[in-house]
Amino acid sequence: MAEAGVEGAEVTASRVGGGNVLVTVVVLTYDGERFLTDLLNAVTTQDIDGDVEVLVIDSGSTDRTLEIVTRYPGVRLIRIPNSHFGHGRTRNQAARWARGRYVAYLTHDAVPAHSRWLYELLKPFELDDRVVAVMGSQIPRPWCFPLLKNEIRGVFQGFGPGFGTTLFYADDFMDSDAVRNAVTFYSDVNSAARRDVLTGPVPYRDVSYAEDQLFGRDIVAAGMRKAYAPRASVVHSNDLSLREYDDRLAAETLGLREVGIEVEVPSLTVVSKMVAKGVAKDTVRLLRDGEYTRKRKLYWLAVNPLYHLQKWRGVRRGATAPLP
Question: In what residue span(s) does the Glycosyltransferase 2-like domain sit (predicted)?
Answer without folding.
Answer: 24-137
